[in-house]
Amino acid sequence: MKLPQLWKAKKSEITLRPLQTAPKQSHPFGQLDRYVPLSRGEFALYDAIREAVPIVDAAIGKITALTGGFRVECDHPALQRELDDFLEKVPVGSSLYGIDAFVAQHLEQLLMYGTSVGEILPTASGATIGALHNVPLQHLAIERDEHSGKAVICAAGSGEPTPLPYQELLVMSALNPKPGQVCGNSLLKGLPFVTGVLLKIYHTIGVNFERVGNLRFAVTYKPTKEAAERGVAKERAMQIADEWQKAMRTTPDGKVSDFVAVGDVDIQVIGADNQILDSQVPVRQMLEQIVAKTGIPPFMLGLSWSATERMSSQQADMLTSELWAYRRQLTPVIQKIGNLWLRMQGAGGGCRVVWDEISLQDEVEVANAAYTRARTRLLEQQLEREA
Fold first, then answer.
1. pLDDT at 353
2. Is the CB of residue 216 less than 8 Å from the CB of residue 269?
């Protein structure tokens, strides 16, 4: 039996159902008399950490990129091409397209805040999926159902959190939640203290270099014991000050001006004798903590701590395991979107997510490893036949 081709028939539809996760509008101070703590305060803190420390921003970007691509396969060969076309062209947010863009934003929010929520927007007729939307967590409140223990996503902006009416159109991921909690933990959890120390060091370095780089001079005039010179000491000191200021004013213009003084005049640079503290060791200690938390090898973040540093097989295995853990978080989200699209087309069954292989090693090493495994299997088969 030929399956209905509803996706082709409804391609021209652009009318979507309104966002149920959109923030509720009210007067500017309306939340004061019905305020409930709907979102955790560390969201702004994590945003500040990512903006202030480029290593953190680079690590999140690397994890998102290294998680890799995927394809979605369904049980109906006749619908496979249409499913691929839908996943490639589905609108995401206001300016992006494709399931890859939705998954990348979903994973980035998951790493940053520990929890990520997305919404599936059907068309107005309900015939197919019209768009995908990643929801800012500030617009939501997430509670735990007393009976089932599952997470219930509620709308923000009211005194009592109201569960959204279409929970089946929402997808949620939580990163390493504690027992009994519905929200996950951010990848940046534990870094506020470390980044605070690091930023203090950076700020101090900037202040010290501003002081040392912008030289200040101490000009000291010492009159002799002669009565005649002591009588004109004040006038001579003022003349020296005027001439010194003229000489310093011409320097920024690229002109060279000599300073000539009569008498015992001593010129010294203020702060030249003070040595700036070496920041290399404490900065590296703080960066080591950040790198250990992200799980990305240092050289991939631009840190050249060793001249011969390269990714070893042990590092590659550990990073691959972490990337697969993130993939396991994303797989149910992708499957829910694919299964819902299939049901809207009138097709039963489900879909499965096939991830691309993670290749972090050189192609030569990968080939050598495959060759070694093949020889091992061959030797095992020979030993079994001989036995």
1. 95
2. yes
